[in-house]
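ok so for the tutorial part 2 we go from a plain amino acid sequence to predicted structure tokens. step 1 is just haveing the sequence, like this:
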Amino acid sequence: MEVNSMVFNAFVVEEKNGTYERSIKSRKISDLPEGDVLIKVQYSSLNYKDALSASGNKGVTRNYPHTPGIDAVGTVVASETEEFAVEDKVIVTSYDLGMNTDGGFGEYIRVPKEWVVKLPADLTMKEAMIIGTAGLTAGMSILRLSQSIKPEDGKIVVSGATGGVGALSVAILSKLGYEVVAVTGKEAESDYLHKLGAKEILLRSEIESFDKKPMLRPLFAGAVDTVGGVILENIIKATQPLGVVTSCGNVASPKLELTVFPFILRGITLAGIDSQNYPMAYREEVWNRLSNEWKPETLTDTCTEITLNELNEKIDLMLAGKLKGRTVVNMGA
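step 2 — the prediction. this is what the tokens look like for a chain of 333 residues:
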């Protein structure tokens, strides 16, 4: 059979009379966008951006029908570049995948060669998707943090600690010897966070109620913040001199109400993390570290595996804030 006429299953979101409907549909390879590399997807994973795309958020996806899935790992089945050969195992995360380019919730994707990373030898396909964009973002944050802050410098606080980026940050930082303080609004998940390696749990309500002063007593040497808003404000104000705070999310709020005092008087660095367009050289470095010295022993503990048929329910749970850790979609099941 000619490749372009091959039929496959995909999770498709369609706009009908102002509402968005999700279903599994048959598609042809010829329906996919142009690209250098055609990949048979073995695993994908569910991210908050996918849930937004699946609910019709035009800030994420402009045109429908559309197949979300910003993460994918699989095997090359056709290639128009010498950089990737048929049967190569590869990872594609971020860039425009799953946003305005059909993504990993389809059994096949076709993408530009610039988006593709070879799967490291020490990483299985499933492990790659447990890590996914969330783990890549965590790894980027930790790479930036570790350039300035060492384990002996003090505690590292991680906000949104039961989410994908947060849970993997807790696990990786703990493995590297940092004393991790996990911030969560889910008190019932304390045992889960301790198992990942957190030494201390700080409830979201506690950090939100910190004093409104421009600066607070130093508590942390650094931070991985995944939520923004008042939690990020208070983390910055409670970071010790020359500390580093990374910021990669704004689910609480994109706004910060701060003075410049923590930055000027304590020399604190606020480092933004953008996983979508992260340069390939650094991307490959982080993936290689995640496959070796940074790979958490608890990696599978952060994961729930589902099939494509279960995806719709998990999207609704994610939008309601009721998922923890990583949700991996087995596209071959």
